[in-house]
Model the fold of this input.
Amino acid sequence: MRLGLYLAGDSLFHRMSPGPKLATVAVAGTVLFFLDDWRALAASLGVVLLLYAIARVPWPVAVAQIRPTLWVLGLLFVMLALIEGPLAGVVMVLRFAALILLAALVTLTTRVSDMTDAIEAGLRPFARLGLNPAVVSLAISMAIRFIPLIAEITREVRDAQRARGLGRSVLAVAVPVIVRTIKLADDVADAMDARSYDPTPRSRRDHAAVAAADRDTGNRAR
Amino acid sequence: MSLSKPVMRRERHAPRDTTGSPPTPTDGMIEITGVSHRFGDREVLKTLSLTLRERRVAVVGSNGSGKSTFARLLNGLQVPTEGRVLVDGLDTRTEGRAVRRHVGFVFQNPDNQIVYPIVEEDLAFGLKNLGLDKREIAARIDAVLTRYGLENQRQQPSHTLSGGEKQLLAISGVLVMAPRYVVLDEPTTLLDLRNKRRVAEAIRGLDQTAIVVTHDLDLVKDFDRVLVFDDGRVVIDDAPSRALARYVDAMG
Done:
């Protein structure tokens, strides 16, 4: 499963810092919703595809970004076509396709850690309101990390039940998956503890004290 | 038993409970003194006293014998119900955070300890927690990836690695933090033979003192010391040649 994850590369977009990229998506998203001429939207989509070419993203990967949303787009098109006419449907589909592909391009060319660093920096002004930016960015990273793992757990549970002759049952799958996920969360919390994770905001952390404690016991980096 | 030794009080930092001899600077050892541990009514460890100084210590025993709990005591993930654990003089009860910086812990299932989506990001996790600067972080990641032959996986999504590579990543994630001790809880249990060998090789090459909990007797046959746990007690404590033979005999 390739979930819009980073695709290593060295294009202009890969080297661009993530802040402007995220800002571009936000601005472009807003602009796209004010455009309602299909030609302008088609041109926007064309520009986005051009950006894919510049970022040297292989076409199959580009197509894979939009494929999971095709049925939603199809449904939207049909509904709008019936209510407001086919042109409204075309406008909506072009708009979403351009936006989804643009956002996907950002995730494809930005490392999750760079992205979360940017989000962390962007959220820093809110720290005064009691928000811990480091925790937010960690949560985003971990969500991305654990989606494939939880998908795997779900597959295992479903296989185990199928092996014992159970048909489709959402509840029968959901309960063991949730239980295993909670257990997983417990283990992960332990592992983070074991790797010295400290949830207090970085600015308030006392590295000097830790370093002093290290000197006391003679811990030196190897 | 050593708890009955005369109590010397010494207050170095903040006043703290010092039941026993004061922490002495040592050349690296873990001291377990009068440790018992209970989960509810169940006593999983029964008044254990041990000093670990060897470079390679194996912990074996049947399921539920208390080995994993024992391992978790060593870096303060678990604090004993009674008694205390000192790592180079640091008490896991009062200085858990400092202890965890010296004692790395590798869990059985690498999937549960890889936190970040990309290999190099995960390696950076612990280093960022130590407050190291970017250059130092990059240098340590380079070194550990080269050491375990994971250079080509550097930017790969961690969930696409093979089982053996995941375990090596988990070990690497701990080693980059330069701990002085590494505790490994059944590191080869989920691996096939080839990956088992790869991980065994990695353990053999550790610069650190390693304490390995395992069912894999082959893995520990050249260790310095073997502890056999049974029902919360250490029933055999000997060199591997003798300890493992007795353990296998006892299992029938």
